[in-house]
Amino acid sequence: MPRMIFVNLPVADVAGATAFYEAIGARKDERFSNEQASAMVFSDTINFMLLSHDFFRTFTPKVIADAHKTAQVLVCLSEDSREAVDATLAKAVAAGGKPDATPRQEMGGYMYGRSFEDPDGHIVELMWMDVDQAMVA
Q1: By the 8 A CB rule, do 45 and 2 touch?
Q2: What is the pTM for the complete model shown?
Q3: How many CB atoms sit inside 10 A of residue 5's CB?
Q4: Which residues are within 8 A (CB) of 38 and not within 5 positions of it... i.e. 6 or more apart?
Q5: Which has the closest alpha carbon to 11: 42, 30, 39?
Q6: What average pLDDT does the structure give for the chain?
Q7: What is the arithmetic mean of pLDDT over 58-71?
Q8: Cα 114 vs. chain centroid, distance in angstroms?
Q9: CA separation (Å) from 78 to 3, 88, 111?
Q10: Are 91 and 110 in contact, with CB atoms under 8 Å apart?
Q11: CB of 92 closer than 8 Å to CB of 99
Q12: CA–CA separation, 66 vs 68, rounded Å?
């Protein structure tokens, strides 16, 4: 089995956050979801766990940061093309996200990135890169 990553995000409204991430292409895995949490699948190896604040607190004694005011992590998802980066960004904005929460990444013809802030303030970067071209740049 390949190594997987589960990004645990505290959210104010599990149903609203679920709808947002479904709008940008994630699929809800009902087996690991309930009113306190939604397991959102991006690929065979990438999952976001959207956790209510009360449920998130059962995993850590630390204060939940207000992601609208502070940043603890930047999550980056790869896309297959520049056009896919823009398409996912457009879906995020249409679903209530804020575009370009971080500077655009334009590295000639080999890398392109945009970002969005979800309704809870978490920043998700979207990136396409031509690795072969990057190695000669």
Answers
A1: yes
A2: 0.91
A3: 11
A4: 14, 17, 18, 21, 28, 49, 50
A5: 39
A6: 95
A7: 95
A8: 12
A9: 17, 11, 11
A10: no
A11: yes
A12: 5
Structure confidence at residue 82 (pLDDT): 94
Q: What are phi and psi of 47, to 5 degrees?
A: -135, 140
Residues in the chain: 137
Q: How far apart are CA 39 and CA 70, in angstroms?
A: 24
**Two tokens at 94?**
């249409």
DSSP string, 42-110: SSSSEEEEEEEHHHHTTT-SSPPP-TTT--S--EEEE-SSHHHHHHHHHHHHHTTPEE-SS--EEETTT
Q: Out of 29-33, 42-46, 107-111, 132-136, pick the least confident.
A: 132-136
Higher-confidence position of 104 and 132: 104
pLDDT at 136 (0 to 100): 77
